[in-house]
Amino acid sequence: MKMDNFHLTVVFGILMWGCCSARVVKVSPGPLIRVEGQPVSIRCDVYEYSGPREQDFEWMMSRDTSAVRLKIISTFDNSYSHPSLSKRVASGDISVARLEDNKVELKIAEVKSLDAGLYWCQTPSTDSVISGNYEAQVQLIVIPNTLSVSPQTLPQEVPEGSDITLSCNVTRVLTHPTYLSVTWLLKTATTSEEILTFGPQGGVTTGAKFARRYADGGIRLVPGKNGVFELVISRVMTSNDGTYECNGTEWTHENENGGKWIKIVESTKEMGTVKVIPTGQSLSVKTTSSSPSPLLSPGDTLTLLCSVGASNLQALALEVTWLAGDRDIITMERSGVVISNTSSSTVQGKRGEASLERTGAGEYRLSVRGVGEEDGGEYTCRVRAFIDKGGKSAGGGGRWHMAAEKKSSAVTVKVSQIKPNFTLTLEPTLNPLMTAEPTELACLVSNIAHLPLGGRLGVTWEYTTLPGAGGGPQTSHHIGSLDGNGNLLPGSTYSDRLKSGALSLTRVQPNTFKLRILRTQEIDMGQYSCTVSAWSASSHGDLVKTTEYKSSAVTVRWDTKRPTLNVMAKRIREASVGGATFEMSCIVSLENLGEAGYSVLIQSQESLESNVRTIMTLSPDNVLQHGGATDPNRRDSLVLAKSGPAEFRFRLAGVQLSDRGFYWCDITAWTKQQPGQTWTRATSAESNKVRIDFQENGPSFSIAIHSDDTSVYPSTTAKMECSLSVSGSSPKTDDLAYEVRWFFTRLRGGQTTNQVASVDRFGVVKAEARNSSSEISVERRDTHSYLLNIFGTQDSDSGEYFCVATPWYLSASTGAWTQAGELTSSRVFLTVQFAVWDSLQLPLLYGASASLGVGLFSLVLGLICAQCCCRNTAHTPRSRNKLMDLEMD
């Protein structure tokens, strides 16, 4: 019983394994409808098989419902084919192609009607267990080729902008459920592009280059009856040149993979080659005058006609513009909107009032009312032809393409008018002889005739460089002009100079104009001319230029010599005693330079070999500054001022001994091209030197320094006294004061000195910052003695010390404080010693005391130990045996 259950389980497992891995053979779902003479392919796949990966296939067919099968072809047996099919297999008309190990495809190059029937695909078994299906069948239906494509012939030439209709008749005999599609193509020399495809089931697809145009309505499909299809291309362009073709295709719909369309036969026919004639070839523009006379008088009306012709005129949108010379005066846009440009003012004034209207197909009329002389000239009509890229159904589309542009021949219009005439004279009224001098030119108008009532004159000034100036060709520049209303119109090059006033254009009288350059520069040398224009009132009441005359040129130039400057200094007031006032005048003489500004430096030096000091400066803009050598307390005593156009005065009040020396002026000449600009240096010079030299019979001073002790120990106080003495006419104590400074150098006779402390003549003490930790004070013992104290001296305080004093005394002759000469004392060398014995006294005393105390303590301790701890009261007599006693000891 148990064995039976085991066998049943094994059998059930085998059956289940076989069910899960059953072979599946699959062919294309049918029925397959194909057209006689066309290629056919039937695919066969096998799945869920065992054995080798590569499977073999056998194809058979049956032409009727009988069970007789004809062997067609095999993938492993070359002799497999039925004799009736072997020749077709050998010729390749029937073949089998392996797509993959388990996929093949039966191919018939040209299917015949006798090939209709059932087709079987078989796979020999390679499975260990027979399970599933090993063959599959599909029905092939072969229908005759009844597809007919009949296009209508196209015209060889089509005007740009017109429509062309591509008509094509596509039919077939319906015996089985097949579908039709029609495709139009445009073939050029290099490419073939699809325009539109309709079908196979009512759908429409467009080529990439025609999708936008189809969406705009420029391409329209018009399905007809009885297989007639029409494709209308609106507003053709030159890019539509080429050969047009019509393609008809018959389709069948199969259910494989959810359903797909299979093309079973197609036919393409040429419709013809179309040449699109550009609009420019047929566009014509002609201008005629409808005025009674070619010569008009001021105030008349000018009428001109513009006639436009084209082979496709009805398909064009025209933009018509009338031009006077090269200037647009009025335009009618393609939408019919008229834009007039005659209202904008020009240099010549305003033109007559223009209007433009369309009088018929391609006919446009220009009218200019109230013409003046400025309306004379050549008139042309310019036409721009536009074609709408969008189709009619899109309402114009709004995408315009300019197909052509053409101008008519010019029509000359003359307006008679008597022009004013006059005589011009240009003469210089101010001619510069050197740089920075003014220039003035007068333009005189005389013999004025035919200037109408209310007419005015205007002027234009021009400048031309001298021949060969700068090595280049002559160039002309527009300086500026005054129009009939007196408005100033500056040239771009001279605009800044005119605005600043460095250059001016004026009308001094109704018939006299002047050009004035305030400071003429070398770049202004050249030729100048004036052009005077006559302005008259037009029919609109505006001033318009009627005529103009140009004067002969006037040359402005001078010898460009280098400017020279001479300065002479002379003494105005001499200071013979201290406290007096010194005054000096510097007179400037300038050559080869016009108007200029001056800067002045007052300089001095004690002797001809000493350093130069700047006392005061005066800028060209009269800004006064004091130099670094000026005592701030004496600035009120210094005066520098401009006393004339080229004269400057320097005054020094209350001279002192320190003021003795040489004084002179250093003067620089500066120029400006125009107001507001910066000064430009021209030249400079120094004057002769004026000396201040007087003898002051005042007191004589001497100085000395001494110290009670020049060798001190550290942390003690060192004192050095600076003593001054006075002899001669000794002033009172209250009339005498000293400025004293102490200096220090580390090395004997060293050059590097540092200021230690100072006391000014008012008693203010200042101690300088030092690296040493010692402190310094200054003590005034009496009028002539000053003491320097160094507390807590350190080794870094060793070095040479000396004092410098500047005596001040109240002069009896001048009543002013006078500074005497600076006095320098001799030098004292201070030594901060290192006291070796004093430093060792206390350490030695402490060491000896400690040693003696330790020795006494050791002695006493030994005696105590000997008496108390080592004493033996029982005496043992020494044995006579000395050796034994010694050993015992």
UniProtKB/TrEMBL annotation:
Residue intervals of the Ig-like domain: 36-131, 144-246, 278-383, 420-547, 699-824
Subcellular location: Membrane
Segments traversing the membrane: 844-870
Domain of life from the UniProt record: Eukaryota
Cellular component GO terms, alphabetical: membrane
Keyword Transmembrane: yes
Membrane topology: Single-pass membrane protein
Signal peptide residues on this chain, from the entry's feature table: 1-22
Principal location listed in the UniProt entry: membrane
Pfam families cross-referenced by the UniProt entry: ig, V-set
Keywords: Disulfide bond, Immunoglobulin domain, Membrane, Receptor, Repeat, Signal, Transmembrane, Transmembrane helix
Presence of the UniProt keyword Metal-binding in the record: no
InterPro entries: Ig-like_dom (IPR007110), Ig_sub (IPR003599), Ig_V-set (IPR013106), IgSF_V-set/TM_domain (IPR051102), Immunoglobulin_dom (IPR013151)
Name this polypeptide is given: Prostaglandin F2 receptor negative regulator
Organism: Solea senegalensis (Senegalese sole)
